[in-house]
Structure formats: structure tokens, C-alpha cells
Design goal:
The protein has 523 residues and is mainly alpha-helical. The protein has 21 helices and two strands. A two-stranded antiparallel sheet has the order 1-2. The chain is globular, with a radius of gyration of 24 Å. The N and C termini lie far apart (66 Å).
């Protein structure tokens, strides 16, 4: 029997966790939540306008920073009602994350539906030596978030199977994969679907202060690349030295069937990977060749690939990545037979778009909420008041960011969606930090650290129930307490060490991403 600890009487910690679960379950659907929040903004705007609520501070006007007084604007006036009615469609169609996410998902959908992503995960694990299996599982977990949620359904059960095949506890493999996929969700060596999504929301929030500021999709890239190795190292240590010793030796029968196809590559899959690899190399080579000439259209007006202003390459990174998934995906699908006809890739794109229905519904109400926030000037007033407060206490950049990281981690316990939370927090904190002189990308990065670290211990995370189901193959008593108790060492360690790395990065004054640093250019 597995030595995973369990008790009949819930511990104090489990009772606390169950309380969080009850509170979290009482939250409405995200679409309804944002609709309610939009309604709240309407009411608050009328109250604040009637009371003459205002704030004074420095804002950018005509390209210059100037002392400005901003007063709340009511939506419950003829003008406000007309605005809500006539701008509902344009608020939605101009919602910054909408186009970027949908375009990125076209390529990811082709690669996923063709089977390419699954085959890549299996191939990478298969060639890994026994001593490197833990870091490889965690590293692949981190990297899997380029394909959104693919790692949850493929790599996590695969991690358990691989550990068991090596004579190790499968729950440790499951935990390692879960830590990489979800705990390290923001870290990566490549740009994934989350990057344009959050950057788009940040862009919308930035417009409250500076409509001319352009948030870079790769604005957190340098730091998140370094974070990939940090999460891999920390996850390996925790798995091998803390989690697996606690679990003990596994000697139980497996509960349920294991699908060998999840850990073996067929001849067709190998041929498909080879053809996809050749096509991908040709595609990347063509991009590199296009970037080489000094006067290349891929460069900016100063002849730079990574510089200011943003180059065609940087501005087009979402489309380039889309085709990096799509073209090899088509090659793989045609080879293995998942795309048997010319319209196979088209059907895959259609299926990917059909899965985005909930996102579209959320995007519509989120866009209204964000734009109501802007129209009423409530976001600007809060930002000015908050900036004035933090200026008065002179808390400093690092303590401020640490507080925001901890706040984001706490919020994640009650609301699992990274984009939904950022839709709420960005309009307040991004302008506030900009007025304090800190870049929007820095604020976004602090949020991503806090948001990722507590994914693995909150039942509000979308796939938490799925992880419990995977765990019950090896421990029929596994539940919320089992998973949470197993994952707490990862969550706490990631939060502490990732925050320390963040502080060191700030002290060193290093750029956090392409064309982005720590500070916002004030005027």
C-alpha cells in the first residue's frame, strides 16, 4: 500500500483548505462575475460623481507629465447610458487580448489536434537518463504551457507513469509534473498563449495613463527564461529530497488502466516527428535569413531586431509563433494520418476556435468592465490616490513589489483564472505603478510570479479535480488534502525563491524583457 499519509479526522490545515474551497465555490461563473462587477462600477460611478470624488496627481498630457485633477464620471447620466449602448460592440472588438489569443490558438490547435505536441512530450521523456528524469519532467512541465493546457492532460499522468517505470513512487512523478506545468506556469523559454493574453490586458490598463505606450508581448521574456531554470532546479530538489521520501516506497497495485500509448512512440509517430522537425528547421531558417539584411523589413527603423521602436519581428512574434506550431503540425498530421485530407488542418483550427467560446464570452463582459472603469475615471482616481499614498510612505520598489506578489498569490487561492484576475487587478495596479515610475511590464511580471506559485494548492484551479483523478490511480484515498499536502513544499519554495530572484534582478537593474526595463519613462 502507498505510504501516502491520510487521517480520518481532517487536520487544522485541511479544515482551513476546505473553508477556502467553500468560499471559492460560492463565487459565480467568471462571465457572471464580470457582469456583476460592471454593474458595480455603474453604481459606484454614480455615487462618486454625486459626491464629487476626485484625485490630483501627475498624468501625461500631450506627451508631457503635468499636475492634473481627475473627477469621477457617472454612467447613470444620459451621456453615460448612451456610451454604454453605443460602445458595447467596439469595446469588445477593440479588446486588446482578443485578436492575439485567437490567432495564437489557430497554430496551437493545429499542432495539438495533429498529435504533434503529445508526441514531442513523449519523445523528450523517452530519451532521458534515469538520473535526469526528475528535472526533465519538471522542465517539460514548464515548457508545456506554450500549448496552454496540454501539459495538464498529457504530461502529468505521463510523469507518474515514467516514475513508476523507473521504480520510483508515481505520486512523486505526478507531483513533479504538476509543479512544472502549473506552479511554473509563467516561466518558459518560448512565448506561449499566456504572454499575449496578459500583455493585451496590460495594454488596456496602460491606456488609462498613457495611450501611446506600447506593452511588449516579450516584455517579461528575459526574466521568465531565467525562471525556467530556477523552477526546474527547485522542483528537482523538492521532489527528490522532500516529497518522494515522505511518500515512501510504492508497492500497491495500480487502480485503473494505464494507456501505454502515452509513453511509447510508434514508427509513424517517429516519422512524423522527423518530418515536422525538418519543416520547423526550414521555417526557422527562413525567418533567420529574412532578419539578416541590415535593411530587412523584419528590423525597426534603426536597423535593430530587439530595440526601440519595436521591430516587425517583435510586433509579429504572435503570428510567427502561430506558424511555428501550424506548419510542423500539418507536416506531422499528414505523416501519421491524423490529417488525412487537405481540410484536416482547417478542421483543427475550427475545433480550436470552438473551444474558445468561453473565452469569447468572458472577453465581452471583461471588455465592458475595463472600459467602464476607464470612462468613469475610477481607475485613474484609484491609481492617483494609491500612487500618492505609496509616495508618502516611501516604501521603495522591492518592498512594494513583494507585497504585490504576495497579494496576487493570495488572490489566486480564491480565483483560479490568471486572465480573469489580471482583468480586475491590472486597471488598478498598472496605472498606480506607472505613476510611481515603474514599468507596466514590471507590474505584470510581479503578478505572474504570485499567480503561478499558488496554482498547485488551490481547488479553484480548473484542473485540480483532474489531478485528483490521476492521483487516485495510485492512491484510492487521494483527495484535496492529499494533493495540497504534497504540493505545499513546491508552492512555498517557489514563492520565496522566485521572489528573491525577482528582488536580485531589480537590484542588478537587469532588463526584464525585450525593450523593457524596470522603470516607466515619465515624459
Amino acid at each position: 500500500m502507498s505510504k501516502t499519509k491520510s487521517t480520518n479526522k481532517p487536520s487544522l490545515y485541511n479544515r482551513w483548505l476546505n473553508g477556502i474551497e467553500v468560499i471559492g465555490n460560492k463565487l459565480p461563473h467568471p462571465v457572471l462575475l464580470f457582469a456583476v462587477l460592471a454593474g458595480v462600477i455603474i453604481v459606484i460611478s454614480a455615487i462618486c460623481s454625486a459626491l464629487g470624488i476626485s484625485a490630483t496627481g501627475e498624468l501625461i498630457s500631450n506627451g508631457e507629465l503635468a499636475e492634473t485633477t481627475v473627477t469621477a464620471v457617472s454612467l447613470l447620466t444620459p451621456e453615460g447610458l448612451a456610451y454604454m449602448l453605443t460602445h458595447a460592440v467596439s469595446n469588445f472588438t477593440t479588446y486588446a487580448p482578443l485578436g492575439m489569443v485567437l490567432v495564437a490558438m489557430l497554430g496551437v490547435g493545429v499542432a495539438e489536434q495533429s498529435g504533434l505536441i503529445n508526441a514531442l512530450l513523449k519523445a523528450a521523456v523517452k530519451v532521458t537518463p534515469a538520473k535526469l528524469i526528475t528535472p526533465m519532467v519538471i522542465f517539460l512541465g514548464v515548457m508545456s504551457n506554450i500549448a496552454s493546457d496540454a501539459g495538464y492532460v498529457i504530461l502529468i499522468p505521463l510523469g507518474a507513469m515514467i516514475f513508476r517505470a523507473y521504480g520510483r513512487h508515481p505520486m512523486a512523478g505526478l507531483a513533479a509534473a504538476f509543479a512544472g506545468v502549473s506552479g511554473g506556469f509563467s516561466a518558459n523559454l518560448l512565448i506561449g498563449t499566456l504572454d499575449p493574453l496578459l500583455a493585451g490586458i496590460t495594454q488596456t490598463a496602460v491606456s488609462i495613463i498613457d495611450p501611446n505606450y506600447e506593452v511588449q508581448v516579450m516584455g517579461n521574456y528575459f526574466f521568465l527564461c531565467a525562471s525556467t531554470f530556477l523552477i526546474t532546479i527547485l522542483g528537482t530538489f523538492i521532489t527528490d529530497k522532500i516529497v518522494e521520501p515522505r511518500l515512501g516506497k510504492f508497492d500497491s497495485e495500480v487502480l485503473g488502466e494505464e494507456d501505454d500509448s502515452l509513453r511509447t512512440l510508434t514508427d509513424k509517430e517517429r516519422k512524423g516527428l522527423r518530418n515536422a522537425g525538418i519543416v520547423a528547421l526550414i521555417y526557422v531558417a527562413l525567418i533567420v535569413i529574412a532578419c539578416i539584411p541590415a535593411d530587412s523589413f523584419m528590423r525597426n527603423e534603426n536597423g535593430q531586431i530587439f530595440g526601440s521602436p519595436a521591430s516587425t519581428f517583435v510586433n509579429g512574434i504572435v503570428v510567427l509563433i502561430t506558424f511555428l506550431f501550424m506548419i510542423p503540425g500539418v507536416a506531422y498530421g499528414r505523416t501519421v494520418g491524423t490529417f488525412t485530407k487537405e481540410n484536416g488542418a482547417c478542421n483543427a483550427m475550427s475545433k480550436a476556435m470552438s473551444s474558445m467560446g468561453s473565452f469569447l464570452a468572458l472577453a465581452f463582459v471583461s471588455a465592458q468592465f475595463i472600459n467602464y472603469f476607464n470612462y468613469t475615471k475610477l481607475g485613474t482616481i484609484i491609481a492617483l490616490a494609491g500612487a500618492n499614498f505609496f509616495k508618502s510612505i516611501n516604501i521603495g520598489l522591492i518592498p512594494l513589489m513583494i507585497i504585490f506578489i504576495l497579494f496576487s498569490a493570495f488572490m489566486n487561492l480564491f480565483m483560479g483564472s490568471a486572465s480573469a484576475k489580471w482583468n480586475i487587478l491590472a486597471p488598478v495596479f498598472v496605472p498606480m505603478f506607472m505613476l510611481l515610475g515603474y514599468s507596466p511590464e514590471l507590474c505584470q511580471l510581479a503578478y505572474r510570479i504570485g499567480d503561478s506559485c499558488t496554482n498547485i494548492i488551490t481547488p479553484m484551479m480548473t484542473y485540480f479535480a483532474v489531478i485528483i483523478t490521476f492521483a487516485q490511480r495510485y492512491d484510492k484515498k487521494a483527495g484535496i488534502g492529499t494533493i495540497t499536502a504534497t504540493m505545499i513544499p513546491y508552492s512555498v519554495t517557489f514563492l520565496v525563491c522566485w521572489t528573491i530572484l525577482f528582488a536580485i534582478w531589480i537590484l542588478a537593474g537587469l532588463p526584464i524583457g525585450v525593450n523593457t526595463g524596470l522603470f516607466y519613462p515619465m515624459g
